[in-house]
Amino acid sequence: MYTNILTSHTNGITTITINRPSKLNALNKQTIQELHDAIAVADQSNTSKVIIITGQGDKAFVAGADISEFSNFSIDQGEELAAKGQELLFDFIANLGTPVIAAINGFALGGGLELAMAAHFRIASDTAKMGLPEVSLGVIPGYGGTQRLPQLIGKGRAMEMIMTAGMINANQALAYGLVNHVVTLDELLPLAEKLASKITRNSSIAIGAAINAVNACYEDGVNGFKTEIKEFGNCFGTEDFKEGTTAFLEKRKADFPGK
């Protein structure tokens, strides 16, 4: 079905693996489209409650964009590349109602780090290295990197990483708050699956509402508190709310219908 990615599904968890190890899993147009399609399928599925994105092999999550595809672009073509990529994949992931975990198994550079930052949170192997090296190529991050990195680690650290085009290791990323956990490579996917499993036990409807409310905090001109109030109220009209509160009062585990 796909050329550049692999997908698997078990116990409510869809795992999407970028499978271009000979290219260090670099993002080209086809891979971006395939990621969008696979994520959309998982999001629309009644059985998929969490999505994990990782890279094939032990070297790279995604080592960047495929520079050969745009090295001769004009100004207008460059702007269109960024706009289409953000809409199709990066903003699409960030605003998805289904939680997305990035399991960073190696180099996450340029578009690769931007992909990881679009996920709702990140975990990393202790071999991972992260950076936005675009200014060393005479360009800037174009898939949301200049916006999401300062939101995650603060303006000063983001400016330093972007302007030096340098890489940080997994422990620095942990200290910066860029990733939530650092484990060995062998422990990476098991940890991602453990966290995903915890998420699947909760209300998918409530989680989608929470994602929307949290994201509202970072949108210009949007009052995040008002979004929270609205989403909180909406929850009261869901079957998940009825099941969750009833289960609590009956001192049993909730069996959320996802409605």
What key phrases describe this protein's structure?
10 strands, 10 helices, 2 domains, 259 residues, 47% helix, 6-stranded mixed beta sheet
Count every helix, treating DSSP H or I runs of 4 or more residues as helices: 10
- Look at the structure and give the mean pLDDT: 96
**CATH-defined fold name of the largest domain:** 2-enoyl-CoA Hydratase, Chain A, domain 1
As a whole number of angstroms, the C-alpha radius of gyration is: 19 Å
How does the major sheet shape up? 6 strands, mixed
Strand content: 15-25%
What shape does the CA trace take? globular
CATH architecture name of the largest domain: Alpha-Beta Complex
What percentage of residues falls in helices of 4 or more residues?
40-55%
SSE topology:
Blueprint: E1 5-10, E2 13-18, H1 29-44, E3 50-55, E4 60-62, H2 75-94, E5 100-104, E6 107-109, H3 111-118, E7 121-125, E8 129-131, H4 145-153, H5 155-164, E9 167-169, H6 170-176, E10 181-183, H7 185-200, H8 204-216, H9 224-235, H10 239-249
Parallel strand pairs: 2-3, 3-5, 4-6, 5-7, 6-8, 7-10
Antiparallel strand pairs: 1-2, 8-9
Helix pairs in contact: 1-2, 2-3, 3-4, 4-5, 8-9
Can you give a write-up of this model?
The protein is an alpha/beta fold and 259 residues long. The chain has two domains: 5-200, 2-enoyl-CoA Hydratase, Chain A, domain 1; 204-249. Helix content is 47%, strand content 17%. The protein has helices at residues 29-44, 75-94, 111-118, 145-153, 155-164, 170-176, 185-200, 204-216, 224-235, 239-249, and strands spanning 5-10, 13-18, 50-55, 60-62, 100-104, 107-109, 121-125, 129-131, 167-169, 181-183. A six-stranded mixed β-sheet has the order 1-2-3-5-7-10, sandwiched between helices. A four-stranded mixed β-sheet has the order 4-6-8-9. Helix 1 links the parallel strand 2 (13-18) and strand 3 (50-55). Helix 2 (75-94) packs parallel to helix 3 (111-118), helix 4 (145-153) crosses helix 5 (155-164) and helix 8 (204-216) runs antiparallel to helix 9 (224-235). It is globular and about 60 Å long.
